[in-house]
Every structure is written in C-alpha cells, then in structure tokens.
C-alpha cells in the first residue's frame, strides 16, 4: 500500500512539474502591441517591479482587475512599480483602445495573442485557463509568482496584489547594498 501511495505521489509530482510553471524563473522577453502606438517590450521596464496582467476585453472580472491595477499603479509608481497589461481575447485588437478609455487606465495595455501569452506563462496551449492572469516580476526580471484565474487570489485581489508587490519591494530592499 505504501509503495502504491509513493508511486502515485511521484507520478503526481512529475505531472505537476511537466504542466506547472517553474517559479521562480527568469522573465523572458514579452512583446505587446499598443493599439495607438509602438510595440512595448517587457525589457523596457528593467529595474522596476512589474505586475503583468493578461486580460480579456470582454471579461467583467478583467475589467474590475484593470481598475484595481490602475489604482495600484497610481499609489506604487513612485516606489518603482510598473503595471502592464496585454489583452489576448479574439478581437482584442479592435476593442483594447475602448477597454483602456472606458476604464480610464493609467498603465500601458496592448494586445497579444493567446499562444504567445500561454507560452510565456508556461501553460499548455491545450489546457483550460481562466482570466485575469497576473504575473509578478521583481526588479531583477525574475517571475516570483503568477495567478491564472485563481479564484482564491482574486476574491480579495486588491489586498493580495498589494501583498505580492510589497513582498517584492521588501525582498529588493533587503538585497540592496546599504550605503
């Protein structure tokens, strides 16, 4: 019986490592197209703590999250935090500009495609996912956490987002040399 449990546990862990994202991991380059301007690269924000939101323009939860992130961007900008967004639903290229305008967003939100987003997240393309998706990247371009439509995280998202950002800022402050 014990051998069976250990075998099942090993199979689960192997499966989890094959299908789960590696955390922490170096944040690869990510490119998204602004609807009213140039492409933006994640690397343009090196040295900042980044909250990268992947959203659907038609999703009410994503719209709410975008508004929360806009408030957080205002409050944390002077501490080196940058919120970025990429909409990746079908037809997002036509709706993202209105999404930004109607929600009064104060951070760059562009367009990407689902395959690029899912590869960035290390999420299998053929596996289901839920939006919004939040990725937290430290000042050294390491992905420290990501939440793919995580209901528990999103139920109290403003507090949870602030907690994640504060952890990253505190870790960077500890690692920074004192002068």
Explain what the structure shows.
The protein has six helices and eight strands; from the N terminus they run αββββαβαβαββαα. By secondary structure, it is an alpha+beta fold. An eight-stranded mixed sheet has the order 1-8-7-4-5-6-2-3, with helices on one face. The longest helix is centred in the last third of the chain and has 19 residues, at 157-175. 44% of the residues lie in helices and 21% in strands. The N and C termini lie far apart (59 Å). The chain has one domain (23-175): Glutaredoxin.
CATH topology name, in short, is: Glutaredoxin
Coarse structural class:
alpha+beta
Please give the number of β-strands. Answer: 8
* Share in helix: 40-55%
Shape: globular
Task: Write the SSE topology.
Blueprint: H1 2-19, E1 25-26, E2 31-34, E3 39-41, E4 49-55, H2 60-76, E5 81-87, H3 92-103, E6 109-111, H4 114-120, E7 133-137, E8 142-148, H5 151-155, H6 157-175
Parallel strand pairs: 4-5, 5-6
Antiparallel strand pairs: 1-8, 2-3, 2-6, 4-7, 7-8
Helix pairs in contact: 2-6
Can you tag this structure with a few keywords?
179 residues; alpha+beta; Glutaredoxin; eight-stranded mixed beta sheet; 21% strand; disordered N terminus
Give a quick rundown of the structure.
This protein is an alpha+beta fold. Helices cover 44% and strands 21% of the residues.
């Amino acid at each position: 019986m014990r051998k069976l449990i250990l075998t099942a546990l090993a199979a689960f862990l192997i499966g989890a490592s094959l299908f789960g994202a590696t955390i922490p991991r170096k944040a690869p380059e990510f490119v998204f197209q602004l609807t009213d301007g140039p492409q933006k690269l994640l690397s343009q924000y090196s040295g900042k703590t980044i909250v990268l939101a992947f959203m659907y323009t038609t999703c009410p939860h994503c719209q709410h999250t975008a508004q929360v992130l806009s408030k957080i961007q205002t409050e944390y900008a002077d501490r080196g935090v940058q919120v970025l967004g990429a909409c990746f639903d079908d037809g997002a290229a036509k709706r993202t500009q209105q999404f930004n305008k109607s929600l009064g967003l104060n951070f760059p939100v562009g367009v990407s495609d689902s395959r690029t987003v899912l590869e960035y997240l290390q999420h299998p393309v053929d596996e289901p996912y839920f939006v919004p998706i939040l990725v937290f990247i430290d000042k050294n371009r390491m992905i420290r956490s990501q939440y793919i439509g995580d209901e528990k995280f999103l139920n109290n998202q403003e507090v949870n987002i602030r907690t994640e950002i504060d952890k990253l800022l505190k870790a960077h402050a500890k690692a920074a040399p004192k002068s």
